[in-house]
Amino acid sequence: MAKARLIFDSSSKNADLYYATGFLVGDPFVYLEASGKKYMVMSDLEIDRAKKESRGCEVLKSSMYFEKAKGRVSSPGIAEMIDALLRSFRIRKLELHPDTSFVLVDALRGFGYSITAGKRPFFQERHIKSLEEKKLIAMSQKMTFRAIEMVRSIIAASKVSAGKLVCGGKVLTSEILRAKVDLFLAERGFIAEDTIIASGVDACDPHCVGHGPIKAGTSIVVDIFPKSRETRYFGDATRTFCKGRAPEALKKLYATVKKGQELALSMVKAGVVGDVIHSAVSDFFTERGYPTREEKGRMVGFFHGTGHAVGLEVHEEPARINKSKYVLAAGNVTSVEPGLYYPSIGGVRIEDLVYVTEEGFDLLGRYPKQLEIL
Fold first, then answer.
1. Element holding 153 (H helix, E strand)
2. CB within 8 A of 322, min separation 6: which ones?
3. Superfamily (CATH H level) for 4-122
4. Cα separation of 312 and 100, whole Å?
5. How much is the pLDDT for 2?
6. How are beta strands 333-336 and 346-349 bridged, if at all?
7. Which among 28, 145, 233, 368 counts the fewest CB atoms within 10 Å?
C-alpha cells in the first residue's frame, strides 16, 4: 500500500487536525488518511458527536482497535492501538504530523514502521484560502478592529497626571487594558491571548506585551490577534497611538512606517517573492535615516518580517513576507506590518491583513491610521 498519513493530537490545539475534520475536541484522537479516504478513530465518549459534526471522514471506534491490540499485549496503550489500526489497513509506511511526540514516533518505529515527518502545514492546501475562509478571516478582523477602537476610546477618555494616563480615578496600565480587551472579545465569542498593549520603552520590543502605566507623549503599540470560538479563524491588526501631542521625532517615525506599509502594499500580488517586498521596505527605511543595527546591546530599526500568513493559526507556514523566498500566491492571507523601533524615539508598527489576488490584494478590514489621540 502507498504511504499513509496520520495525526494523533487534539483538534482544539492542532489546526491541521481541525482543518481536516471540522471536529473540535480537547482530547487527542487519531486521524488517518489511507487509499484516498479519511478516517477518525474516536473514543466511545466522542464517537456519536464525531459522526454528527465531522466532515468527510469515516468514524471508527478506538475500542475496537484496543481490543485487537490485546492479541499482542495485555495492556495496550495508544501506540499499540495505532499499531492494530495500521495492521488492519496493511500499512507499513507512514507520514506523521510534525508535532507528533517523539515517544509515539519511537514506539511506531519499534514496531517496524517506516516513518517520515510531514511538512508544516500538514495540508499544504491550507495556505490558499477559499472565499469562505476569506470571509471568516474578514469577520475576525472586523472584531479585531472593534477591540482596537475600544482601547483607543479608553485612551481618549483618560486624563494625564504626572506623565501617566488616569481613567476612572486609577492609573491606566497595560494590564488593565489587556483585561478589558480579553473581556470585550470573550463577550463577543472571541479568544484573545498575549495581546500587546505596550507604551514607552516596552513599545520598542515588538513582542513585549507591555507592563505598567500607559505613558503620555510616547508611542502605544496595540496589537490584537483574536480567534473566533465558532470558526477558529484569527484576525490580526496593529495600530500605534500617542496620548497627547507626539514629539516631532515620533511623528516622523510614524510617518515613515506608514509610508513603508504603503510601499509594501503596492508590491503585493500573486507571483511576487516575499523577500523582494521585505528588502524594499528595509531599504526604504534605511534611506530615510532609520537603519537596522545593534545599539547598546539591543536591536533597533526594522528587525522582524514584513508579514506572515494568518488563518486557523495566527502565524502560519509557509507564506511569509520576509527574507524567505516564498512566492505569494492568489488566495494567500498575509499580514503587512512593517515597524521601526528606537528606544530614544519609540516603537511604531502598523498592521493590516490582505487577501492576495492575481492583480494585487483585497484589504480584509479597515481602520484609521492616526497617531495622536488628543
1. helix 131-157
2. 274, 275, 278, 304, 305, 306, 307, 308
3. Creatinase/prolidase N-terminal domain (3.40.350.10)
4. 19
5. 64
6. unpaired
7. 368
Cell, residue 38: 479519511
Q: Which residues make up the CATH 3.40.350.10 domain(s) of the chain?
A: 4-122
Q: What are the angstrom distances between the C-alpha of 319 and each of 62, 125, 150, 323?
A: 36, 12, 31, 11
The predicted-structure confidence for 140-188, as pLDDT tens digits, reads as follows 999 999 999 999 999 999 999 999 999 999 999 999 999 999 999 999 9
CA 108, CA 114: separation in Å to the nearest integer? 8
Q: Could you tell me the three cell numbers for 46?
A: 466522542
Say if residues 349 and 238 touch (Cβ distance below 8 Å): yes
Q: Which amino acid is at 300?
A: V
Q: Directed axis angle between helix 62-69 and helix 78-88, to 10°? A: 90
Short-list 316, 339, 332, CA closest to 261: 339
Three-state DSSP state, 295 = strand
Q: At what angle do helices 274-287 and 248-267 cross, to 10 degrees?
A: 150
Q: Which of 40, 2, 48, 44 is nearest to 20 (CA)?
A: 40
pLDDT digits (tens, 9 = 90+) for 77-134: 999 999 999 999 999 999 999 999 999 999 999 999 999 999 999 999 999 999 999 9
Q: Where in the chain are all domains bearing CATH 3.90.230.10?
A: 126-373
Cell of 233: 479563524
Residue 135, helix vs strand vs coil? helix
* Closest residue by Cα to residue 196 from 148, 149, 234: 148
CB 302 within 8 A of CB 281: yes
Q: Which helix H or strand E contains 62, and what residues bound it?
A: helix 62-69
Set of cell numbers at residue 199: 507604551
Question: What crossing angle do the helices spanning 78-88 and 102-110 adopt, rounded to 10°?
Answer: 50
Distance from C-alpha of 349 to C-alpha of 107, rounded to nearest angstrom:
46
Q: Which CATH architecture has domain 126-373?
A: Alpha-Beta Complex (3.90)
